[in-house]
Amino acid sequence: MAVSSLATRTYKIPWNGSEIELSLPADSVRAEIRFTDFPPLTDPATALVRALEEPIGRPPLAEMVWPGAKVALLTGDRMTDLMLGSRDGLGHVILDYLNRAGVRDEDVTLVFACGTHPHRNADEKLGPGLINRVGRYLKHNATDDDQLAFVGYTSHGNAVWLNRAVVEADVVVGFGEISPNTHGGWCGGGKMILPGVAGRATVEHNHRQLMRPGTPLGLADGNPLRRDMEEGADLGRLAFKIDVLVNSAQQIVAIYSGDFRQEHRAALNDKGREIWMTRMDPVDVAIYSPGDGRERYLESSLFITLDSAMLATRPDGVIILVASAAGGYAPEGGGLPFSDRLSARDLLKRSSPEIARAMIDTTGNVRTASILFAAKRVLEQRAVLLVAEGIDPAEARAFGFADCVPSVDAALERALAWKGRDATLATCFPRGIQWRILPWREG
To answer: Is the model's pLDDT at 3 over the cut of 60?
Structure first.
């Protein structure tokens, strides 16, 4: 875009392992959606012990266990496995604390609570020191019926099967991380149980609720998908939850613990929203990058990014997605799986009602369909211009993009032709783990 104003803002945007530069009129840019970094805790181990002793809505963890108690210690696959194990060793801090309360290491079951995700080098990240210290270590397998036990129903019509080792434990403790997510609004809290240690059918029913109104990114209270998760966590008897907030270097900046609902909302109200959200009014045109490490493939550029961009724009607004897609739609053999009969790439070319039908049809991967449904919903509700070099424009239009153009300037000229030269702009150019950032939402 040719900029004549002397007052400009210049941005560097990730592009296929390098960067491209964009200059915008400063008076048109009404918001820059950013990640807020906080300094890391100087002594995470001491802070963790304090959180165990001073929880929110629960007595100290030491008062909830007893000699001989069987404890299930759960962690997910988003940074916390490294925190507990090979990087920070915080799992040993928890075990030492439990030892002082009379719980033996051999009475602790360490559970990699990955839901329907792959195991992603869990052994390496948790590390042999932690794995060999506990009495039992297992990686949850949502498709292994022998691992599962039925525990009841939620008010959202979900039949809940959970990992049998968790169900049989006397005390269930979770260690998680809080960041925005389309599925339930946020990570953290009761999500450790559902989907963390739930059976595939239970997870799929939960994910189908993404079709319901009122399940947006960044909403916790009032989110029906999250309420289903939390009722599942009640059925799983999640007694004590520990959640952390991190900075852009994946260092812990705050620790919260206690009742999984109360500590989760306390974290959001304290620093969580401030870290991940930017206060702004919706604009005419939002220019988004999916972030370095994600923009090289179109498929990875869609998740969360488009939902955030929809929140940033007015109902008649335009989204410009700047993703080189230099590697194409997805890595060869490494994209989201759907079914033997239909690829995720072809499913994205269908309408949202057709993708919804695929979510109901259990012959395909419901998690994949739910991710594509969320993206398609944005593509149908906003004009989205794709800036990419690795996607054919005809296929981009088949996916639902308004068009695919070779440069940000060309996309911006098109958007301004639609919205007027005085259109208001917002930018979102995250780096690293910041790619989940979004406009501010309460609740």
So the answer is: no
Architecture in CATH for domain 8-33+280-439: Alpha-Beta Complex (3.90)
Q: Is the pLDDT of residue 1 over 50?
A: no
The per-residue b/e assignment along 158-193, b for 16 or more CB within 10 angstroms, e otherwise, is: bebbbbebbbebbbbbbbbbbbbbbbbbbbbbbbbb
DSSP strands (E only) in 37-147:
71-75, 108-112, 136-139
With a cut of 80, say whether residue 362 has pLDDT above it. Answer: no
Residue 361: phi and psi, rounded to 5, are: -75, 110
CA 380 distance to own-chain centroid? 22
Cβ-based neighbours of 101, under 8 Å, separated by 6 or more: 61, 62, 65, 66
Q: Which CATH number fits domain 44-276: 3.40.50.11440, 1.10.1020.10, 3.90.1150.10, 3.40.50.140?
A: 3.40.50.11440
Pair type for strands 252-258 and 277-278: unpaired
Give the integer Cα–Cα distance in Å for 39 and 323.
Answer: 30
Nearest CA among 23, 34, 29 for reference residue 1: 23
Q: Could you report the per-residue pLDDT of 94-134, keeping only the tens digit for each?
A: 999 999 999 999 999 999 999 998 888 999 999 999 999 99
pLDDT of residue 119: 84
CB 233 within 8 A of CB 195: no
User: Using alpha carbons only, how large is the chain's radius of gyration in Å?
Assistant: 22
Strands 180-181 and 252-258, bridge-based pairing: unpaired
246 or 1, higher pLDDT: 246
Taking the alpha carbons at both ends of the chain, their separation in whole angstroms is 38
**Is there a contact between 94 and 75 (Cβ–Cβ < 8 Å)?**
no
CA within 13 Å, CB half, 386: 32
